[in-house]
Amino acid sequence: VNTFLNAKRVYFYDKHLYHRRLRSDSITSSFHHAFSDCIDIYEIIAKTIEDNGVYDELKEEILRNQCKDIFNRFSQVNEEYKVDFFEKIQAHFSNIKDKLENDQTLVNCDEKTRVIFYSALEAENGNEFELMVDNYKLSVKKEKLERKVKSLKE
Predict the structure, then answer these.
(1) Tell me, what's the pLDDT at 32?
(2) Mean pLDDT, the chain, integer
(3) For a tag site, which of 10, 38, 72, 75 has the least CB within 10 Å?
(4) How far apart are the C-alpha atoms of 37 and 24, rounded to whole Å?
């Protein structure tokens, strides 16, 4: 991230240079305790972006990606690691909540990001967290279907 932010020029090369091999025992497919390390990585990314003076420009995008990624990883992790992962999510979001509210990031971000963020803080456990977010997703889907039905009737 530091290198990218400090580069004078960046070139987008639209060809695949790397093909990842997936193995059943790899960290990306085994859904184990290391999945919660994404929170530590997001903390490093946020600090790097802040240190490079581009936090205000990227804060909503960083939060959106962070919430989406953390929720997706949490949903995939094995049950035996969910309690610890959920506690880490709550601690992380609690630590950044005041800053995000004070600098208006949470006000300006999209609704789904706010739902994930506040659901993690309000839920009593990981199952409730997942259900709260899934309920939101279903309500959005229902609204879209209702609009589609209405347009078909017209």
Answers:
(1) 56
(2) 89
(3) 10
(4) 19
